Amino acid sequence: MKFDTVMMVDWSGGNDRGASPKPDAIWAAIAREGRAEEARYLRNRQVAEEWIGAQLDAERAGGRRVLLGFDFPFGYPAGFAQALTGNVSPFAVWDWFETRVEDSTKANNRFDLAGRINTMFKARGPFWGNGLARDIDGLPRTKKNYDNPFADRRQAEQQAKGAFTCWQMSGAGAVGSQVFMGLPVLARLRRRFEASVWPFEPLTSDIAIIEIWPSLTLGAAPEGKIKDAWQVEEVARTVSSLAPEQLADMLDINAPEEGWIFGLGHEAQLKQAASQPPRLSNNCFALPPGVHWTPVAEALATLKGRLVPVAETTVMPVLEAAGRVAATNLIAQRSNPPLPNTAVDGYGFAGGRGEGVHQLPLTKQRAAAGDAPVTLPEGQAIRVLTGAALPVGVDTVVLQEDVTLQDGQITFRGPIKQGANTRKAGEDVVAQDVSVAAGTRIQAPEVALLCATGVASVQVYKPLRVAVLSTGAELIEIGGAAGDGQIFDANRPMLMEMVRRFGHNPVDMGIVPDDRVQLAKVLDEAATRADVILTSGGASAGDEDHVSALLKQAGAMSLWRIAVKPGRPLALGMWQGCPVFGLPGNPVAAMVCALIFARPAIAYLGGEDWPEPQGFDVPAAFSKNKKQGRSEFLRARIRDGHAEVFASEGSGRISGLSWAEGLVQLPQDAMTITPGTSVRYIPFGSFGL
Ligand code: AMP
Ligand code: MG
After folding, report:
1. Among 468, 471, 475, which residue has the most ligand 1 atoms within 8 Å of its CB, making it the best to mutate?
2. Which is higher by pLDDT, 5 or 542?
3. DSSP code of 336?
4. What is the per-residue pLDDT across 457-506, written as a single tens digit (0 to 9) for each?
5. 662-666 and 678-683 beta bridge pairing
6. pLDDT of 212
7. Which of 486, 487, 497, 651 to probe ligand 1 with, by most ligand atoms within 8 A of CB?
8. Contact (CB, 8 A) for 334 and 632
9. Residue 535: helix, strand or coil by DSSP?
10. What pLDDT does 441 receive?
11. What pLDDT is recorded for position 173?
12. Which of 165, 262, 391, 635 is the most exposed place for a label (fewest CB within 10 A)?
């Protein structure tokens, strides 16, 4: 049982809750593959129904199967459906309510309806709890002197600790009103989308609706989060992370009249799924034992094989999407061009013409860009202007410069090929083809392409939060007074700016001294505030290399000895489910390693295709005897078509980074370079800077 999208809705029986997000309103969240989008506040049922419908439309258009959850009972205790409607089907109850519930943003008739049902049964029940000031015929205010012709709870509620009875219409936690005000919406959604409803019918539709009660497995929300918002995110995330067999197992229930609460009886499994770390495995940076020096290309291939996108997705207007990465293939809604049109100002007619002089009568009609295509009588020509859709009967255009116009006739010299100076419909992009592929970063050209192909809204990845911290007892923050032995932190500001250039959001975690306890605390915090952690310094294997020591202690680190210069070992590890890139402390090595290793890894985690920085071969303007064993990256720039390199290869020379405009990459093998030797130059722009 596989669903691409899980959508969870926390319903409400009350009135409109106002424009700003509030608890006890309707909240909804969408999750895919174990990642939830931020919960959506829906101020009233009308807004909610419309929003849910739009989401389902979008999911269906994208070919995705949806599991849609609501948090109120879909059925009543046995016997109620038959007694109310004469039909045992729960859908008869849905229809009964749909035709009788009156609902607006300010008021509804739920209490009167409850009273009416009680009166029908000539009983002081089953419903109780009048939430209004005025008395309501047939509806007791409290459970006192109440009698109920039906069971007080469904089978499901008898098993689910703390669940409320659906007969209670008001008071804290009551669900009775939600059912009244929810069933009509369910009935409409089921009909409109031909959705399947669990567990009453087989889930054959691409949209399945299930009953979920978040409190079944969830406790209190984290501080500062609205409980409903948090719960729908958690439930959606958790359910979407279930394996298909697990899901099928949980959906395997026989409760044809009363319905069932999803996950009831499977609480342990659900809790286990909820507590799963992000999908990166803890040993994702492990290296095979005995490995000494890994070549750069192999290190990159290993990294790529271990990582998966962890960014959340969201849907946004194309006009706001520049800089984001497409999360799905974005499909052309329209061909470009949509109709055949003329590429030039000139005169249109049917068919090509051979050698010699040709003359055609000119119709009085004219076709300009934006005009609907007219029909051209046979044997005539028509004035056409660039971008105009070709009139019916026109497939060839002659340039106006090649034509003489006299007495209502055009004259021109052949030959001219059939189809000349025209553009065919869809010659650029055909409707329903991929306009922009998943994994592409949307830049100005993609914005143009998406607009031209009628794609108004796009599903994109959210930028990652990348925590950046510097380690070293010698470091102080710029702006402070540097004492003897102290240096200003240069790496963190540099790396934060690089993260921004890569299209993600840096999270500043400051400077941490060479102290394991403090470092662990900062890493803990970084892991909760960010998706990726970048550190610099302390990554090697010395006494004061606490980043690598801590990650090693956590049992989830490898020191990657990559055959690269500059660069000491890279400490790659997981801290509380968060990938950590431990960069060297030397600023030059930190920047080069960030460009070569962290940048593609972060791009990939963020949903982007693995970037391969493109360079080109140019003659060297320098000499060098390169030794065998390591790939080298030299700070370089192009002048007069030749690659110059910075005078010093010292890894602390930050001025060289600023001097350079790119890197020269030298292969692992030995190499003798003299002026004119071909070397590979990669501009900083190719690294995303
Ligand atoms: P480490 O990798 O911690 O052994 O540091 C290597 C060298 O880089 C030392 O000289 C450090 O002082 C220097 N260094 C480390 N972190 C920074 C930083 N954030 N800014 C500038 N220099 C640094
Ligand atoms: Mg250090």
Report:
1. 475
2. 5
3. B
4. 999 999 999 999 999 999 999 999 999 999 999 999 999 999 999 999 99
5. antiparallel
6. 97
7. 487
8. no
9. strand
10. 97
11. 85
12. 165
The two structure tokens encoding residue 240: 């979407």
Count CB neighbours of 248 within 10 A. 13
pLDDT score recorded for residue 277: 47
- Per-residue pLDDT tens digits for 178-189: 999 999 999 999
Read off the pLDDT of each residue in 287-311 and give the average, rounded to a whole number.
Answer: 79
Average pLDDT over residues 147-167: 94
Give the pLDDT band of residue 620 (cuts 50, 70, 90): very high
Secondary structure in 3-state letters for 422-473:
EECCCCCECCCCEEECCCCECCHHHHHHHHHCCCCEEEEECCCEEEEEEECC
Tokens of 309: 């996108």
* Residue 117 to residue 121: CA distance in whole angstroms: 7
The model's pTM is: 0.62
The neighbouring-strand residues paired with 419 are none
Question: DSSP assignment of 614-656, as one string?
Answer: --EEEEBSS-EEEPSS-EEEEEEEEETTEEEE-S---TT-HHH
C-alpha angle 91-92-95 in degrees, rounded to nearest 5:
85
Question: Average pLDDT of 400-408?
Answer: 95
Complete DSSP assignment for 156-211:
HHHHSTTPPPTTB-SSTT--HHHHHHHHHHHHHHHHHHT-EETTTS---SSEEEEE
Quick check: helix, strand or coil at residue 349?
Answer: strand
DSSP for 45-97, please give it. Answer: HHHHHHHHHHHHHHHHHTT--EEEEESS-SS-STTHHHHHHS---HHHHHHHH
Give Cα 153 distance to the centre of its chain. 41
Q: Encoding tokens for residue 475?
A: 């470091």
Going from the Cα of 555 to the center of ligand 2, the distance in angstroms, rounded, reads: 22
Q: What six digits make up the tokens of 60?
A: 């269906």
pLDDT at 523 over 80: yes
Tally Cβ neighbours within 10 Å of residue 565.
Answer: 19
Taken as a whole, the chain contains a residue count of 689
Q: What tokens were used for 404?
A: 């003489």
589 lines ligand 1 (CB under 6 A): no
Phi then psi dihedrals of residue 158, to 5 deg: -65, -30
Is there an atom of ligand 1 within 6 Å of 475 CB? Answer: yes
